Amino acid sequence: MSCDVERLDAEAFKGEAVERYRLRAGAASLECLSLGCVITRLDVPGRDGNCANVVLGHSDPQEYMARRREYFGAVVGRVANRIARGCFVLDGREHRLATNDGANHLHGGRRGFDRRLWRVAASATGHEASVRLQLTSPDGDEGYPGELEATVVYTLTPDHALRIDYEATTAAPTVVNLTQHSYFNLAGEGRGDVFEHQIEIAADEICAVDETLVPTGELRAVEGTVFDLRAPRAIGRALESRDGQLDVAGGFDHCFALQGWRARGRALRHACTLSEPRSGRRLRVETDQPGVQFYSGNFLDGTASGTSGVRYAKHAGLCLETQHFPDTPNRPEFPSIVLRPGERYSSTTVLRFDVLP
Length: 357
Prior knowledge:
It is built from 3 helices and 28 strands. It is mostly beta strands. The strands form 7 sheets. The chain has a 9-stranded antiparallel sheet. Strands 17-26-25-22-19-20 form a 6-stranded antiparallel sheet. A 5-stranded antiparallel sheet has the order 1-2-3-4-5, with no helix packed on it. β23 and β24 form a beta hairpin. The two termini are 27 Å apart.
């Protein structure tokens, strides 16, 4: 197992010293940046034993700083997803956040965690390779209260699993909801759309959304709808369905409330499975979070150049963002994301890669 370090050209990142880390374990390998905790490559074997990069990313590392709308491979926060009208009330005090998605706040604001330079301490121990990244978010950052200390650890294991551990502490009451925003294409980066991928999500409900993709507060049953993905279904076939929720989002861009989310306890449980029949690659996701945002790459428009040089058209990749429900600070009926001094935010997601039997 190994973890290698490469320092990139600081001039490309407005004078900041960005580092690239490479983790290797078994046949799998991962590359990530200290900028935004961005995963730029994730190579895993297919049925034929050959490895391919299964995440989308920019061909030029500078693009991670220049572009905003895709969030390729980044950790997003302080709060992932949307907060309606960019404001919330905590302990009787209103907090106004940066708005960067129309009237709403999205993925931490104009300069969220995806655009920050994280401090890095790399390690490789035993049969696993890992890298630890840390960030201090000051009080008032993008409108959020309290100085926050955040940590993300990527660990690659010999059985081709990627474990993502998140932690945070705060100096004053605040809200936290971190997630990883990689786009997956199990056929390989730049190899067409994800229509033939089969997806299964262990969820009985979704968070219904309004025309701005903010939850209405309704947890809508998936039974009898296109959102019933409790059995594997081809993504392309599902996208052909007529449904008002699909129409408003231009595809899937919804938080699925995972089975058992109302139960107490934070044990890892199965969230979803993604597979691609030609390569035979399969991804199984486990998480201790109550939801997973399934985003089918609806806003990819052919302007972003990928790591292979291919420009990403609509549905060239998809995201499976494990997280708490969107707009939770304004929805007391949703599981809380409030973090107070003396408490520790902790979350784990495991991405298990293998091949279909």
